[in-house]
Specification:
Elements (H helix, E strand, L loop, with lengths): L18 E5 L5 E6 L10 H16 L3 E6 L9 H4 L10 E6 L1 H4 L5 H18 L8 E7 L5 H10 L4 E5 L9 H15 L5 H5 L5 H11 L8 H14 L3 E6 L5 E7 L4 E3 L6 H4 L6 E3 L18 E8 L5 E9 L10 H16 L2
Parallel strand pairs: 2-3, 2-4, 4-5, 5-6
Antiparallel strand pairs: 1-3, 7-8, 7-12, 8-9, 10-11, 11-12
Helix pairs in contact: 1-6, 4-5
Length: 352
């Protein structure tokens, strides 16, 4: 398989915004991390998220998306405001990481118990927004043992996974955290109504429209990086055309396109509107085949392969796609590579 190199990113200090990093592979697991307590202090937030994504993918053989929300101080900011705007229902595992700075200031058993109570309030705020089977992990990262805090959390909620990790002496992310996360993800894949199952279905259209509006990408001038990307796609997939499309209300808009004109297109002529209805890729070997369910049979396109283009939190806003006037076998498409391009397009949109 052709491997795409991730765009170069600077090793800048932690940002005030959430970031998502991905590891190659289809049907990705999604992990949301609040706080930097389990990441190496010298890593940027995006690099730390990418390290975790790759480590989990190496264990599972699947794709992984890790969203990291900076939360480096205990200043009264609620969990919900720290991750404002994130659709947390898209995530399989949510980690709340309490760093050393949080617990070191708690010098008495009463104060330590108070820290546990505060953490539980945050967890209670989060639970109604998650899928029913989503797992919450509280990771305590600090040098000294704080048995009172650990015991208080475990006693308060029997179904809460509470881990004690020392990020100063182990690799980032800690192996224990990776092992527990992988076990939780494996268990969820077999559950009805799991986050994986839910996000494979259609998403509310209004969520897509609102996210696209927030991106501010539609009806903007040409982007040289996106134009270069679609050119690269035609070369690797050996197709005549490629595009990066968005689906705002009532139309399809191409931010970059080869062969088919860039700009607004009619929804009735759009393969991408079907691509965004599920979380995985869509391949049409021959759209003109009368024996297959009708999608779009007008126009010059016979072969089409597309993958949903997602926001950082997994909202499907459009698609990256390749297409041609000649049909081809559906099993000839390198689907992992197609998702890699969708990840690159997302990173370009968010400046990651």
């Amino acid at each position: 398989m052709t491997v795409l190199e991730a765009p170069q990113r600077s090793t800048r200090p932690f940002s005030a915004r959430a970031v998502t990093a991905s590891a190659s592979g289809l049907d990705p697991d999604r992990v949301l991390v609040f706080g930097d307590g389990v990441f190496a202090p010298e890593e940027s937030l995006h690099d730390a998220a990418r390290t975790m994504a790759r480590a989990l993918a190496a264990r599972s053989g699947r794709g992984v998306d890790v969203t990291a929300v900076p939360w480096s101080s205990w200043s009264g900011q609620t969990l919900l405001s720290a991750g404002s705007g994130i659709h947390v229902a898209n995530y399989d595992v949510v980690m709340v990481c309490l760093s050393g700075s949080v617990v070191h200031s708690r010098t008495t058993s009463t104060a330590v118990t108070g820290a546990a109570d505060e953490a539980l309030v945050l967890v209670d705020q989060l639970r109604p927004l998650l899928a029913p089977t989503a797992e919450i992990v509280v990771a305590l990262a600090y040098k000294e043992e704080q048995p009172a805090l650990l015991a208080s959390l475990r006693e308060a909620l029997k179904d809460l996974v509470v881990l004690s990790v020392d990020s100063d002496t182990v690799a980032s992310p800690p192996p224990l955290l990776l092992e527990v996360s992988q076990l939780l993800l494996e268990q969820q894949r077999a559950r009805a109504g799991s986050p994986q199952w839910l996000r494979s279905k259609w998403q509310p259209f209004q969520e897509r429209y609102d996210t696209i509006r927030g991106l501010g990408i539609v009806d903007t001038p040409t982007n040289a990086a996106l134009d270069e990307m679609v050119q690269h796609m035609t070369e690797l997939f050996h197709t005549r055309g490629a595009a990066i499309t968005f689906l705002p209300e009532g139309r399809q808009w191409s931010a970059a396109s080869i062969w088919i004109p860039r700009g607004t297109g009619a929804l009735q002529d759009s393969f991408c509107r079907s691509t965004v209805l599920s979380s995985g890729p869509m391949v049409v070997g021959d759209a003109w085949d009368k024996n297959r369910p009708q999608l779009v049979r007008r126009g010059p396109i016979r072969f089409y392969a597309g993958h949903p283009l997602e926001s950082v939190d997994g909202t499907r806003v459009g698609a990256v796609c390749v297409f041609d006037s000649a049909p081809r076998r559906e099993d000839s498409v390198e689907l992992d590579l197609l998702r890699d391009f969708a990840v690159r397009a997302r990173d370009m949109l968010y400046g990651l």
